[in-house]
Amino acid sequence: MHFCEPQPWRRQNAPIALVPPVCHQSRASRINTELFEHQRAHEKNDNQENRIMPKIKTNRSAAKRFRKTGSGKYAFAKSHHSHILTKKTTKRKRSLRQMQLIKSSDIKEIRRLLPNG
Question: Does 6 map to a domain?
């Protein structure tokens, strides 16, 4: 906080509380502050009048892992089919190739993550 320097027009014996403080803010910056406050007040009114709903966003990590089937169910790829395949049996690798359907207990959560399908 800046203290005001003594001014030549100030009475010497006047109590400090009665003397108005000198504003060190320039006229241009005072005008800019007033304009900014005025614009903020108008923006607030505009937002209340328009009330635009926010966009629904898809969870991108879920979008990469799950996809919707033609019947409306959700499917995902099984794990453990990307590397170290030599020790896995042919039968196991064949079953890992197929997509697996999401269980009915988890569908509600998946729908929340993927609102746009």
Answer: no
For residue 33 the two structure tokens come to: 């502050």
How does pLDDT run across 9-52, given as a tens digit for each residue? 666 665 555 555 555 666 666 666 776 676 676 666 655 666 78
Task: Report the amino acid identity of residue 33.
Answer: T
Which amino acid is present at 59? N
DSSP conformation class of 74: E
What whole-number distance in Å separates Cα of residue 67 and Cα of residue 87? 30
Establish how many alpha carbons lie within 13 A of residue 24's alpha carbon, considering only the half-sphere containing its beta carbon.
Answer: 7
Nearest residue to 19 (alpha-carbon basis) of 8, 35, 30: 8
Among 33, 114, 32, 18, CA closest to 66: 114
Count of the separate structural domains present in the chain: 2
Mean pLDDT (the chain, rounded):
80
Separation between Cα atoms, residue 51 and residue 44, nearest integer Å: 11
- Distance from C-alpha of 29 to C-alpha of 43, rounded to nearest angstrom: 21
Claim to verify: residue 33 and residue 71 sit in the same structural domain: no
